[in-house]
Structures are given as C-alpha cells and as structure tokens.
C-alpha cells in the first residue's frame, strides 16, 4: 500500500524538487500546494528535498535510476546554482532512457504549469518537458490542446524558451507519427526565421535541417514548399554561416524531390534558383560551392535535362551558362531577372558574373523581348557605381554595347522595328 501511495505522489515530489529555481543564500524551496510536500518544507534546503526524492524513488523500485543519476553527477548538479538547469535536463533525459513509469504523469503536471504564462519556473518546466517528449509514450499523449498550449509560448520574449520549443518541434518530426501536431506548429517555426535575435535564427536553421531530413513530401509538402521559397533571400546573406546553412537545407530539399511532386509552385521556384546555383559555384565559401554542383545535377534530373546534367556535373560556370541559355532560350527573360537579383550579391565575383551573363542574355533577345528590360538597363546604370572596379567596368561596357545595339534596332535597314522608340541613354 505504501508503495502505491509513493507512486501516486512521485510526480508531486518531482514538481517540488525539480520545478524550483536555484537556491538563494540557503533559503528554502518554494512551497507547492500539496499536503504531502509539507512534510519536507519548513523550509528545507534544496539538498534535503533531493535526498527525500532519492529515498522515495528507491522505495518505489527506482533504485537503479537513482544510482544511474548518481554516476552521472546529476544529483549534485541539481543542487548547484550554476548547474541546476543542467541537472534538470540530465534527470529528465535519464527518465526517458530508463523508461520510467511516471514520465506521462509528470508530463501532465508540466503542461498544467505551462498554462500559466507568468509561472516563475516556466524555463525549468520547458527543459524537463523537452526531454520527456523524446519518450514515445509521452509523445503519444500530446493532443491538439497540448500543442496549442505549447504554440502560444512562441510569442514569449525569452529566447531560451523559444529555442526549447524549436527542439520540441524537431522531436515531433523525429517521432514520425505526429504529423497533425507538427502542422499546428509549422507557421511558428517559419516565423522564427525572421526573429531579431540572431541566436534564435541560427537555432531555427539548425532545426530546419533536421526537419528536412525527417519530413516527407507526402505528409509535409506544403511546409517544405514554403521553406523552399523562404530560403531564396538567404542565399545572399552576408553571414557566411547562415548562407551555408541555407544552401545545405535547399540541397537536402532538392534531394527529396521526385519528378512526380515537381508541380507549381515548387517547379517555379526550382527554375527560379538555377542561375543562382550556377553562379555560387564560385562562392567564396568552398562548402557552398560543393553543395551547388550536386544541387544543379539533381535539378537537371527532376526537370528531365539529361544533356545539361552532364554539363552541370563537371563543367565550369561559363560553359554551364552558355549551355543553359542555348537549350532553354525560351526562358532567357527569366534568367535575366535572376541575374538582376544577383546584382545585389555581397560577393563581387558573383556580381561580375551576373553582369556579364545579363549582357549575353540581352544580346540574344528579339525586339519584342528587348522592350521588356528597362529595369535591367536602370540597374546596369547603378552598377557603374559599384565599389568593385571590375563590376563597374563590366556594367559600363555592357551598357555601351547594348546602347549600340539599340541604335541599330531604332534605325534598321528594313521597316521591321520602325515603331520602336529610342531608349534613354545612361552616359
């Protein structure tokens, strides 16, 4: 009978022992409103409550767990002001490893605590909860109400809690059978990519890499497609680490794409990033360049470009660009717009190649298409003031050549282009 009473009370004692902040100047722990706990609080030091927990756990058959924590130094960490949170994490992780019977009841306690937005021990609760969710039995208890309680915490202003929530999302994906729960959290995860806190952004991208690895197009096509579009601006990030992670995620995404799922709008975005991938073969970060080549090859595979795939696999940037323009000439204006976006790259070599390729594309356009590129002429005018001398020189030369061609089109030997008006010059 005593054993059953102890088993019933164990979650309450965990709440008392673990869900408290680090001790302050020998003062006792915060009281929890449970009669059973009053026997330990008058008020006791933290070490006393920990010893009580260890004694209770031994009497209820958890002796091996107590010893396991002792070997890892967890009990000492729990009573340390500096190591308290590490101790909390270690205890929770050990409970999952040992598959403790009380994992689910303790998880229920934690969720009830987190319904209070101003609970003073919310961070400790999240740390414990994040570990417990690794247990399949605990994850199986997560219903829609629980997910919404967790989702509301994404709005909090505590980076440590948001990072733990991102780890919770990662755990959901790893379980593989929590598709519905994950869908509720999808917009919150993508929203973290735009956080003003750099640490949260980096944590989000670390989690996104894991999500891409574990999610499937069958169950998460909408999220993965949104992610593909969201990555676009990040390929030109000045932060080398963030730029590399963006390419890593996109490369992993492409590797999961089959021709059967390559439909609008995903196909549009894949095509929209081709010139970018080619130009980043010369990225300052060699790791980015190494990602771009297999990404280009897979792009060719899912688009059915067998000839271009062979070129993508081994040729240099300019051979690839010429072959791409030759085979996909009907997309010349689209490629030109992609070059225009790359005029803003923080890397001068990429801006140089973008300007040169833009000039080559424009020379292949017919009169009707040439009427649609006023924006490119304007951009080239600005590029003449680029801080990189090579870029500014290329922009000036490209404008000179294009304006010379423009004059020929305005005064052709036949009447084919009589209706064309002269284009404004930029000299």
SSE order in H/E notation?
A: HHHHHHHHHHHHHHHHHHHHHHHH
As a whole number of angstroms, the C-alpha radius of gyration is 30 Å
Count of beta strands: 0
Tell me the overall shape. elongated
**Distance between termini?**
95 Å
Mean pLDDT: 82
The total of helices stands at 24
Structural class: mainly alpha
* Beta-strand content: under 5%
The biggest beta sheet, please? none
Give the low-pLDDT segments: 1-9, 19-45, 415-427
Which range best describes the helical content: under 10%, 10-25%, 25-40%, 40-55%, 55-70% or over 70%?
55-70%
Pfam families: HEAT_MROH2B_C
Protein name: Maestro heat-like repeat-containing protein family member 7 isoform X1
Organism: Acinonyx jubatus (Cheetah)
Domain Maestro/Maestro-like HEAT-repeats: 147-402
Please outline what is shown here.
The chain is mainly α. It has helices at residues 2-18, 46-59, 63-72, 74-78, 84-97, 103-113, 122-132, 136-139, 144-152, 159-175, 179-192, 198-214, 217-231, 240-256, 266-272, 274-279, 286-303, 306-314, 317-327, 332-342, 348-364, 367-370, 374-383, 389-410.
